[in-house]
Specification:
2 copies of one chain form a homodimer.
Chain A: H1 6-21, H2 29-36, H3 40-52, E1 56-59, E2 65-68, H4 77-84, H5 88-91, H6 109-125, H7 128-138, H8 147-158
Antiparallel strand pairs in A: 1-2
The structure holds a DNA duplex.
Amino acid sequence: MALLSKSCVYGIRAAILMAIKGERDYLSIKDIAEELNLSAHFLTKILQQLTQEGLLLSHRGPKGGVKFSRPAREIKLIEIVAAIDGLELFEACALGLHGCGTATPCPLHEKWAKHTVLLRTLFETEDLEKLASNVGDAGLRLRTLSQLDILEFNKNKKK
Amino acid sequence: MALLSKSCVYGIRAAILMAIKGERDYLSIKDIAEELNLSAHFLTKILQQLTQEGLLLSHRGPKGGVKFSRPAREIKLIEIVAAIDGLELFEACALGLHGCGTATPCPLHEKWAKHTVLLRTLFETEDLEKLASNVGDAGLRLRTLSQLDILEFNKNKKK
DNA sequence: AGTATTGAGGACTCTTTTATCCTAAACTAA
DNA sequence: TTAGTTTAGGATAAAAGAGTCCTCAATACT
């Protein structure tokens, strides 16, 4: 199992790319999808969720697209996760037990509760501006690798 | 998204119950499933994975069932997770980026890498005997709640 | 006004996960 | 040896997640 759903990961990557591209103009979802090597249709669906949650503003027609409703500096990673995957990851019992809590804890409750605080803090601390600048500093790719890219990557790895 | 798949959670619950019940005799999967309020067929499939990984010994026929291949004290939570969900959770990039690593990190890489160490340590530290004794101490339920139980639970909550 | 562009949103398909059911094989006990 | 019990394992079904496609509404530009 991955920590986050694919939709959520795509949403995060798109948001980071948007933060890199600048916050002034509307960016077309099609362009974002192309840069990330994702299906534009699928990404549209995902970003719609962010728009509905009020994280993004959208605009139709030529010169349309999406942009942040607030400065990227103020948008925390957890907001994107909450909008797409929900907060279950940070709030639910690790063993999926209904009603697990301080009063009736599951055998893992205490340790896991401490851990979710850390996890949550991580996601509450990281904002899109910071993540975007990381990408610049490290010269990094957000792009989803195609099968061809993966072959290429593994070839270079061997050398 | 949950941290662990349902199969994995069921496997863990079953293992904890087995540790509570004692390690001497084979326990029938049907009995375990009944106590946990799970489908016996489904649980059988899951425990088969643990058997194939060598964590459990199984025995067919009357007086048959499953039991640990080693003392519960020596079986760590991470072994069950590894057998069912795999180690992706502890090893993969949080943004699902292929090839993310020290050399070419994703914007979250460093923070997330530190975090997975903690997460992994938690799962490597907890063993089934310890978890089982927690259940005894706290008077806890591992049982999956039925819809009826959930109604009951919420009713008591309101009071 | 007309046309091209872009997000919104519904319908649909494919895959994976979750769950059920059936038969076979191994085993116990009478 | 026969009957009953229990895991192994394949076939299948249901549900959720991932992804595609089509139409509509809003918009900009001519």
